[in-house]
Amino acid sequence: MPKRKMSLRNLKRVKSLHPETILVKQGKPSAVIVRPRHTEYLEIARGIQAQIKSLTGVSLSIVTADRVSEKPKRNLILLGNLNNNSVVFRLYGYNYTPVDAIYPGKGGYLYHSIHDPWGTGSNALGVFGSDLDGVRAAVDRFLHGLKQGRTLTVGRVFDVKFGAEALRIPGLVKDPDLNSEMEAAEEALQRGEHTGLWGRIGERGLLYGLTGNEAYAELYKRLVFRMYEHAMSDPDNYGGIWGFDADFALHKVIPGWDLVEESPNITSQERLRITRILFEFITDCVPHVGNMEVPHVRHNHTTFAALGLYYSGVYYRKYYGAGEAEDWISLADKCFQLQARAYKPHEDCSGYQWLTHYHLTKYSLSKGDMTFFDNGCARMAADYAILTTDNLGYALPYGDNASPFGWWSELPYLRASVCVMGDGRYQWMLNKKTAVEPRYSAYEYHSSVKPEEPSDLDGTQTFPVDPLYYDSNNGSSYLPYKKTVDKVVFRDGFDPDAQYLFLDGLSNGGHKHYDGNSISRITENGRIWLADCDYIKSLPKFHNGVLVFKNGQSMEIPPFVELERSANFEQTGFSETTLRKYSGVDWHRNIIWNRGRYFLVVDEMEAREEDDYSFRAVWQTLGNVEVQNGGLSVDQDGEQFYITGVPGTTLKLEDDEVTGGNWEEYKHAPPVVRILQQIADVHLKKRENFRYFNLLYCSDADQPQSLRMTQLTDGAIRIDGAGEVVYAGVGHPQTVQQIPSGPDVTAAQFHLSPSVFSIVDGTSLQWGGLGFKTDRPVSLEYLVREGSGKLIASGRTQVSFLAEGRSTVLVNGDETRTRQTGGVLRFEVSKGEHAFRLITDEVNRLRQLSERKFRPVARKPKASQVSKGKVKLLKPVWTYSGGGPFLSIRGADLTSDGHQEVVAGGTGGDVCAVKEGDILWRYRTGGEVRSVWTADLENDGQTEVIAGSADTHVYVLSAWGKKRWDFEIPLYYRTPMIRTVFAGDINGDGNLEVIVGAESWRYYAFTHDGKELWHQMTVHSSTQGCAADIDGDGRAEILAGTEYHRWHCIDGNGEIRWSYQPATGPRTNSVAAGDVDGDGMKEVVFAGADTNLHTLKADGKLLWQFNTGDEVTQVDVVDMDGDGLDEVVACSMSFNVYVVKGDGKTQLWRRDLGEVVRCISVGDFNGDGKPEVAAGTEDGIVYLLDNSSGRVMGRHQMEGAILALAAVDVDGDSVVEIVASSASGNMVVLK
Q1: pTM attached to this predicted model
Q2: Confidence (pLDDT) at 5
Q3: Distance (Å, whole) CA 1198 – CA 1031
Q4: 902 — alpha (psi -120 to 50), left (phi > 0) or beta?
Q5: Using one digit for the tens of pLDDT, what is the confidence trace for 1025-1066?
Q6: In which domain, by residue range, is 1060 found?
Q7: What CATH number is attached to the domain comprising 669?
Q8: In this structure, is residue 1206 part of a structural domain?
Q9: One-character DSSP codes across 549-589
Q10: Residue 496 and residue 620 in one domain
Q11: For a pLDDT cut of 90, what percent of the chain falls above it?
């Protein structure tokens, strides 16, 4: 290291290179042999020592790795590998050597020089192997090249022979083609590849360290120079001149440079240039770490940058004494030293969270700061990886994760955990995972220990929320820490055919989904039975939970789930998890598990206030399904799964092929998500309950099951077909529940059969000649036939057992002191778990009792039914089919005859103009036409038609369908399929400009004759937009909706005036503007897929949100009540149409149409001078709704879902008609 600090801004000379490794100099030793402690290595070291002495007359010292200082002053000859030599371990952390259990692999060897890794001028020679045979082979290669003399020197060397294991690592035997690589780099720059070229640069540098192939050094150099040239051209990149998330690659770029820098292919002048370029790049990465003074768990974006800065700081401090390097290291320290105190990062996402853990691990092991491992957090995180892996070996895809199999990002962390902690449970899980997905990479701390099945994580498991994560997410504002839970898992062993169920306890954190209290997965018999995975679709409706609507509205799901109780027994398991204050109810989800047979899920919806509620239990699955028994039967390649409910709900089954695309590689079912909703519309009084009972089970040849479920009381059901009758359900620890033909039980949860009694938080049970009472709630499982059980007491407890003819009870193996009165045994237990024995012969009698006739006494809550009544039918004027289904409809007088024609664009790629039911003209594009617009662009009294196509072109056509001009949107990041087109005078020149939103993360503006004015990065893909003058300056602004992240207001010059980031993230489906508050300025209303209407002032500040409970599908802003102020008219997938006043609270009216409402159109459809609302639903009905109350005035049934509506005066009578298109391909005009 240089003796004084300097600034890299003034760098004029590069560091010195040390290509020669001197072992003996002029008859004096200049090196030390460093061996592992194992005896075999002493023999190998002595062989090296003897050979060098025979050549030079000098005997080199032999030491064990623990005797070597952190900065050796002599050159080292290193033996062994990562797992047995601590000096190698430290060098591995900085990527100076890749030697571990799979590289170079068994029998393979690596003999290479490591140049000045400590910044002291001392080198190392690695004489390495993954095993002893490999090390011996490396020694042979080393000794073979030595020459006799008083001075013994070894030059640069990289000599490797791969064993079979190493060949699993991608790219090891590839010989890169420089021209092809650079061509690919150019294409990557054009499309705005993630991390720019830096990801490629880092990978090529590390491949140089793995192969010694000089072509990778040449590539590294060329790519850096090309990246710098591109950056200096001020490219239109999202994320800055270096590329989107370029800092993510820094942690590979710098170690890669430390390896490549020694290459003879790079001149001193080139080294100086690259060193300066890297400094500029690093400087740009610094802000990406963020504010490290905030004591919150870290985000993976932060740790990407921090790890890169740590490596950068070490490099530039070590070789240049750079003052900036200290700042970089300090920033990294602040990042990781706090995260080391937690076992969960900012992410509640199975893909991203492991990135942070592994970044922290690499930092810890490189730096030698073992806090994360010493304080137990690393072990908790590794246990979490096991817990959140299903029985098929897949990590659960909770959070932003589109793959049902996970990202496998947990593998590097588990490997490092095995390496550091030597825990065989982690090795066992690694083996299971890599048997499914044999994915291997270098530099991932590969080691191997004896595997051990993690049976301690079997049964019912509740994993606690990390305390620092809890504090970072303001947990105390929601629940006391002791009541929270991160994940709940039920697992009947680890066999792929055994049961596994996963429930999520969080709806917060980075890349979160709103999936708290939902069951993300069930696996059994080698199948995945519940479908739950997507990157963007985060809302509750995309998860297996219960949707809650109170008077047509919902609210954001609470961030923490409360764990009320759980129990883990030999034959049964229980949990009760609760979301409190969720849209007017407390939602208690009870899972009652008959191990090896079924799960009973009881959802209790307890009203906190009296109102009308709509509950929708959602179950998502895959396979061939049939609606039956209040639920579904599911078949996947001959394996069966059943969701069995009880009568009293409306069942709605729909298919989601889009989300199903995530399941393309799942081999047991077509890639279609089958969604069942069990819908209940009820009126509840305060503290009244509505309960769902659902029995989830498999049936197969080894254990055929056909279970029947009958609701007996409000809280209890009877299950037949499981070999013996079972009574199960929920109640209260102090309220007795008398079950027809069954027991009297006082417990929060219970599962009772003649052979097994299981209760949780109960105080009494009476069935035949058996029973018990306690003076405080206890949980127990009693195997009646065996006469053994387990009792869990929360404190010292008085217990009374009724067992006719029995006088003794064994507690924890000892005959306890009892008092017997009238056949009742009374004794006392302390707090904790207690094994007990009480022999009885009541099983047969209980079976006889259970066979008695019974009459259910369950009460039904008051229904709150959707009343459609009898309404008149709307009259079809004409129908057209051809070129559809049509996705976008506009009306315009193309023929100047006073009648409007219908212009439509559809999936067939056509733009169609239709007059009186006949085609006027048709224009064929090369892709689906998702958006059309009509406007007089040339101010000549003639209407032009604008169309946006999936063929990446925008077309402007004359009123007679002739092309005026078109423009091909260039590639950037994604294929630029066009999603929205519209027009507006954005510069105040009196002419309309054409606005285009594409999937390539950009909006474009064109003059009326097709000249590009500008384009603006809007990140992510465009969805819907509009033009409106929201600030009153006479020029329209562009309101640009996107699928994710932010929605924007863009001014006429193409500059983003403001951006709005909804906390919930997903896309906007529609946008409109109008003056809703009477201030003379237009407000902006976005229809969010996050369930909300977002109403913003002209300056982009949020005025209010209105939650519709499901995706808002379309919005308009119209004065509905004639008071001079605009109202917001919106439709939602919650089945409702809303008219909301400008205060965001008052509803003029709401109409529940009993089905998803896909689109609306507002117009005076009956000529009374007031606007009505036309609404189109998923089940193919067009409704006409009254202006004042939303009463259904008329309806029309079409085939297929309604895709688009428009108000068009087709007959020239000044009264608009309804134009509707459906998924069947038909378009109809209704009057």
Answers
A1: 0.95
A2: 65
A3: 42
A4: beta
A5: 999 999 999 999 999 999 988 999 999 999 999 999 997 767
A6: 872-1230
A7: 2.70.98.70
A8: yes
A9: EETTB--PPPSB-EEEEEEE-SSEEEEEEEEEEETTEEEEE
A10: yes
A11: 92
